[in-house]
Design brief:
Length: 264
């Protein structure tokens, strides 16, 4: 891990810190604490996002019949990772994990072991260069790109800065997938904040104190153009097919849009 810089906060390690993991450094904890001090419910959003990933993966494997997954922006392993959920439904499921943090890859190779019937692979690559992901030999070796794939973009698109900057990347990835594939995505938003909170967050972005580029529901919706949204459509993370008996928090406690959609 020669290129691992522990002095600069990394989203995957900060997310691990919020989820109660152990794989983070002082810079990650400092960044996480600063954001949580300004936005006290940010940890709730992280937990809701993680729970959505598990429900969406189970939906793809159990209801949509998906047996292949491309999970970009993997993050550090916790419990019930994509392949574990998918393979609990269909042991033959295959998953390729992608992340740009070398620490994530080291942990993934050590901890994310596949079922005997399936396969789990890992590549170090960046979402900003979707072509490098699609042409990677490990992707071709693990996934049959002539068959439907579940593309998982969980809490990663909001690290693509700039208005309209995420859509071309998503279109490039979805365009390489066959009919019957699914896009599952989540995205941080400021839609539910007060005007003061929205102003404060914009100030953090302008000052370089946050690496999360929030997007509105309308801009998030453009990522799914040409696809068939799965019910209930675009909703906050905690409201997408919640488990029976779940207490749904206020939308302002979550601040994450999510959706799943099928490529016709």
């Amino acid at each position: 891990m020669d290129d691992l810089d522990t002095t600069v906060a990394h989203p995957a390690r900060r997310y691990n810190y919020w989820l109660g993991g152990k794989d983070h450094f002082a810079a990650d904890r400092e960044s996480g604490d600063q954001l949580e001090a300004l936005f006290p419910k940010v940890r709730l959003g992280a937990l809701a996002n993680r729970a959505f990933l598990q429900r969406a993966t189970r939906f793809l494997a159990a209801e949509a019949g998906i047996r292949q997954f491309l999970d970009i922006g993997t993050g550090l392993p916790t419990a019930d990772n994509t392949h574990e959920v998918a393979q609990s439904v269909a042991p033959e499921s295959r998953v390729v994990y992608v992340d740009n943090d070398p620490m994530v890859m080291v942990h993934a190779r050590a901890l994310l072991t596949s079922s005997p019937e399936g396969r789990t692979a890992y590549i170090e690559a960046d979402l900003n260069d979707p072509a490098s992901i699609l042409r990677h030999p490990t992707v071709a070796d693990t996934l049959d790109m002539s068959q439907p794939v579940g593309l998982m973009l969980i809490a990663v698109l909001h690290f693509i800065r700039g208005h309209g900057a995420a859509a071309p990347i998503v279109r490039r990835l979805v365009g390489a997938l066959p009919s019957g594939s699914y896009l599952v995505a989540t995205h941080a938003t400021s839609d539910f904040g007060t005007p003061e909170q929205q102003r404060l967050y914009q100030q953090l972005l302008d000052e370089g104190k946050s690496d999360v580029w929030t997007r509105s529901r309308d801009e998030f919706a453009t990522l799914f153009e040409g696809l068939e949204l799965v019910e209930p459509g675009i909703v906050p993370a905690s409201e997408w097919r919640p488990e029976p008996g779940t207490v749904i928090p206020e939308r302002s406690d979550i601040n994450i849009w999510v959706a799943a959609a099928r490529k016709p």
